[in-house]
Design goal:
This protein is mainly alpha-helical. Helices cover 60% and strands 7% of the residues. It contains five helices and two strands, in the order E-E-H-H-H-H-H. It has a two-stranded antiparallel ribbon. A hairpin with a 2-residue loop joins strand 1 and strand 2.
């Protein structure tokens, strides 16, 4: 283009969505997991009075947007990516007082 060589890149980020040269979204899932995990850790460190209602509101407003941003574009097709994103939700449900010891599926139904 106009005498300039184009550089070869293995991934590109556009509108916050990372797409690799092989069209896999694993890097996007890793970044979403990282951001959501950091937000969850921040909530865990800073919130002193933890009840299910407060934690659920914080999770829905601060953590879930990182996990759900542009999922129509990069929907995780691989099980390993889905498991990675699910780890954040599992961690959150263990943070809620009184739910730490019960199985994951029961924690989900308890929190709706």
């Amino acid at each position: 283009m106009s005498g300039q060589r184009l550089t070869l890149v293995t991934e590109e980020k556009d509108l916050g969505v990372v797409i690799s040269s092989d069209m896999k979204s694993s890097q996007q899932c890793n970044q979403a997991y990282s951001k959501a995990s950091r937000m969850l850790a921040m909530i865990n460190r800073t919130i002193v009075y933890k009840n299910s209602e407060n934690l659920l509101r914080l999770y829905e407003s601060l953590v879930r947007p990182h996990l759900e941003y542009c999922t129509a574009a990069w929907s995780p097709h691989y099980i390993k990516d889905r498991v990675l994103l699910e780890k954040v939700q599992r961690r959150f449900t263990r943070m809620v007082p009184g739910l730490k010891k019960i199985p994951y599926e029961e924690r989900l139904s308890e929190l709706e």
